[in-house]
Amino acid sequence: MNEQRDTTFSILKALAILLVVTAHAAAPTYLSRFAYMVSVPAFFVCAGYFFNPQYLQQKGTFVVRRARRLYLPFVKWSLLFLVLHNLFFPLGLLSETYGNAAGGVTHPYDWTTAMQNLWSIVFNMSGYDVFLAGAFWFFRALFLSSIAFLLLFKGATCIKWLKNPTLQVAAVGTLTLLLAIWQSFDGLRITGVAQGGYRELMGITFMSIGFLFRHNTDSPVSVAWRHPALGLAWSSLVLVLLVAFFPVAMTPSTGNPLAVVLLALAGPAAFVWLHAVAHYLSLLPRKVPEVIAYIGDNSIYIFGFHLLAFKLVSMIKVLAYGLPWEMVGNHPVVTFQRDDAFWIAYLFVGAGLPLLVVWSWRYFCTQFDFNWTRPADWGRLFLTISVGIWTGMKWLGRTSVRTSKKTAHGIAVTFKDIVTQSRTDDDN
After folding, report:
1. Which domain holds residue 49?
2. Which of 12, 140, 141, 216 lies 20 to 30 Å from 195 when distance is taken between CA atoms?
3. Cα dihedral sign for 274, 280, 282, 284?
4. Are 108 and 193 contained in the same domain?
5. Nearest to 185, CA basis, from 266, 247, 249, 252
6. Is the pLDDT of residue 293 over 60?
7. Residue 220 in contact with residue 226, Cβ under 8 Å?
8. 10 Å Cβ neighbour count for 291?
9. What is the dihedral of CA 246, 248, 252, 256, to 10 degrees?
10. What three-state secondary structure class fits 100?
């Protein structure tokens, strides 16, 4: 099988992340249901699809790569939000009056709370700012799911009657699905894992499905999803029925085992649907697939910062409706007049602003040969900024002096004219 990266999957991830943003943007009900059902499960299926069996012999390499792509960004960005948390209150980005749709609010951190969150961020990937980094659970869930999938897969290879990778991964997926059903039925939790580990169990299940999709090319199931038209047809039917009658998402389903089963059905259907749509988008004129693929290749930044980007639209909405400024702190969006079209603005800004920042940063690094890992480059940047500030201050000073001289001269001339005119009047 060709191991080269297929651009189609970049487009697939772009569609998935745009649906994540749509779900958080308070889109119309049925679109929101669809977005919640399709977006995140597809990422887990993709992770399993690209899992290389060689990692069973290179476990350290796999763990390091996952840590670099998931754990380190999570810690880095969570700490950034931790440092800025209290500053966001006077700016109106967070509010002690307005919170989320469920009525919860957040508060400034005292020292003890901040330190506890620091520990939680580093040691168990929790404690992040849930109002501005609420999507960060995905990083933890995918990281833990990936490690657990690797270990369970490795363990399954030791069972003699599981003779090939297909049976081994099928056993892993079945086991975690049954555990998720049991967990839901009895309201159980995996202690030490935020939200009880439900998302992680389902993540392993979806990764198993993705692996089976990739490595069973001759099966009837493979034909049913690899053929774009056929895959689009049956997956659309499944998803429409679920959205209309049984909407599910990656949220814990305590006391509802049926929701677990339906989510296990929705995940592969979502992947197949997105893959089919991505295939047809890849056939469009060249620039269109390239732009969409760029979104998918940088989806991690949208995951990390779309809720913060939402605040720009919230400011505009608050001003447009004449609402209290504190309502900018609504999470994830300003809930006033949810039936308006502001969700479209939230979608474009939530996805576009993080990408614009990333593109601008990369352009800067390219233009100025800047590498953020080199201390010398930071020194050079600091020196350049300092010189720029000094040059600007000198220009401002000279301009101010010239302006002051001209103003003083004008005042003197005016005063002289007044005095002269006064003397003329006295002579008369």
Report:
1. 7-367
2. 12
3. negative
4. yes
5. 252
6. yes
7. no
8. 11
9. 20
10. strand
Q: How many Cα atoms within 13 Å fall on the side-chain side of residue 337?
A: 10
| Domain end position, chosen among 325, 348, 367 | 367
Mind giving me the DSSP string for 130-163?
TTTSGGGHHHHHHHHHHHHHHHHHHHHTT-TT--
Asked if residue 149 belongs to a domain, the reply is: yes
pTM as predicted: 0.86
* Rounded CA separation 141/163 (Å): 29
Contact of 140 with 125, CB cutoff 8 Å: yes
Can you tell me which residue has the tokens 């002096």? 401
Residues 351 and 381 grouped into a single domain: no
For the record, the structure tokens of 132 come out as: 């501005």
Number of structural domains the chain divides into: 2
Instruction: Give the burial string for 137-175 (b: 16+ CB within 10 Å, else e).
Output: bbbbbbbbbbbbbbebbeebeeeeebeebeebbbbbbeb
Examine the domain organization and report whether 315 and 229 are in the same domain. Answer: yes
Instruction: Specify whether 289 is located in the same domain as 415.
Output: no
User: Residue 428 — very low, low, confident or very high, per pLDDT cuts 50/70/90?
Assistant: low
| pLDDT in the model for residue 277 | 96
| 399 within some domain | yes
> pLDDT-derived band of residue 3, with 50, 70 and 90 as boundaries?
very low
Highest mean pLDDT among 4-8, 394-398, 420-424: 394-398
Cα–Cα distances in angstroms (integers) from residue 386 to residues 347, 368, 396, in the given order = 38, 16, 15
Residue that finishes a domain, picked among 367, 395, 420: 367
| Same-domain check for residues 210 and 349 | yes
Instruction: Reply yes or no: is the peptide bond before residue 332 cis, omega within 30 of 0.
Output: yes
DSSP string, 362-415: HHHHHHTT--TT-HHHHHHHHHHHHHHHHHHHHHHHHHHHHHHHHHHHHHHHHH
- Distance of alpha carbon 208 from alpha carbon 44, whole angstroms: 9
Claim to verify: residue 303 and residue 414 sit in the same structural domain: no
The rounded distance, in Å, linking the Cα atoms of 184 and 256 is: 6
Residue 35 is assigned to a structural domain of this protein: yes
- 144-193 pLDDT, tens digit per residue, is 999 999 999 999 999 988 889 999 999 999 999 999 999 999 999 988 88
Domain-located, residue 1: no
- 267 against 372, higher pLDDT: 267
Whether residue 282 sits in one domain with residue 196 = yes
